[in-house]
Amino acid sequence: MSLSRDVLAAEGFDAFIQQMLPPGYMQFLTPEEREASLQAALSAAPDGDIWLFGYGSLMWNPAIRHLGHQVGLVRGWHRQFCLWTPIGRGTPECPGLVLGLESGGSCRGLSFRIGRAEAEEELRLVWRREMLSGAYRPRWVTVETADGPHRALTFVINRDNPRYTGRLPESETVTVLGSAAGHLGSSRDYLLQALQALESFGIEDRRMRRLARLVALIPEA
């Protein structure tokens, strides 16, 4: 399984995801709650095209129509493995880890430009992908690029969500990344795909590189 545009747009996507988990295992936002969240974000958008800042899987699999992208820097937030995933890169019995934006520091990633006329339709797919359980909070941030700054939507970690890990010891992060796997593949592959995407765009992330070196020492199952 991959999070393609067709998969995200499928009418039964929500039910398909929910049936992968034991009843009551995880709280999901209702479609109405997701739509309200999207509309609130759009109401705060600046004039013109919409920018979406990706720092994890959006970098290598945006799954949306966009007009182009730019490498950019967001200050005040940093990339961190801080969200348990019991479906995509793990299971309920062995949850995996995916990235979120934690407060503090800075983060380089990709900012995608979406035409204003298509923005609501495209972002609705992003909300289905990122906001199923409310594990993230949509937030407008300033992205610094070679062409100057612009405002962009991104998703920061929701520390009130039960799937938020808190600050894990590095040893636990490495163990989980080296062992967990789910319907979208392994947490190990997620880490390597993120690192490869960063490197392909000339973005240096020493923390991610260190994690990859440590995870490589764990034999693959």
Overall description:
The chain has 221 residues and is an alpha+beta fold. The chain contains seven helices and seven strands. It has helices spanning 5-9, 13-18, 31-43, 116-130, 170-179, 187-200, 206-215; strands at 50-54, 68-85, 96-114, 136-145, 148-157, 181-182, 185-186. The longest helix is centred in the middle third of the chain and has 15 residues, at 116-130. The model has no long low-confidence stretch (mean pLDDT 95).
**Count of individual beta strands:** 7
Report the structural category. alpha+beta
Strand fraction equals 25-35%
Helix count equals: 7
List descriptors:
single chain, 221 residues, 5-stranded antiparallel sheet, two-stranded antiparallel sheet, 7 helices
Helices and strands, with pairings:
Elements: H1 5-9, H2 13-18, H3 31-43, E1 50-54, E2 68-85, E3 96-114, H4 116-130, E4 136-145, E5 148-157, H5 170-179, E6 181-182, E7 185-186, H6 187-200, H7 206-215
Antiparallel strand pairs: 1-3, 2-3, 2-4, 4-5, 6-7
Could you give a short description of this structure?
Helices cover 33% and strands 30% of the residues. It has 221 residues and is an alpha+beta fold.
